[in-house]
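Quick question: what would this complex look like in 3D?
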Amino acid sequence: MNILKWKYCPFCGSQDITHRANYLSCTKCDRGMYENVSATCSIALYTQEGQVVFCERAREPHKGKYDLPGGYVDPDESGVQCIAREIKEELDFDLIIDDIKLQMTAPEVSPLGHDLYTQFLDLNFIYQISQEDFKKMKALDDVASIRLVSFDELKTVELAWEHDKLAMQMLQSQLDGKR
Ligand SMILES: [Zn+2]
């Protein structure tokens, strides 16, 4: 929302506004609003062999770079409901709800072009798949293509988001601990 850049009260149009941290208040109409972050979900769909499904982004921001599948949480949706919906929309694949595990959460900023941006908190999940599962997946919606990436290959792939790098580090150390 970038309310720190706003010059007019969004309720009454007055210029008599003040900003304090992430809060905008209007002296004229006595209303105010917070700049809260949005919620997103992402998921590391990983194989027993230590590969993870990455998506080539078909749209801006970060078009052409790779990320874990996921997206913005809709109103009235839980994190698990969101990621199950996103995986159906983007990969035409049905997740088993009880097998979706929350791994970590991390804040990040998404550029919207010009000088605008969205601040969001990503909820990162993990979920084990088989090679057969991957073969059933299709690149749909805002995904240009999909591929399996091993932890070793990861440094050769241009990733869109810092939170995906953190999620992969965490998943790798967890899987290494099991071996
Ligand atoms: Zn006002």
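Answer marked as accepted. The chain has a mean pLDDT of 94.
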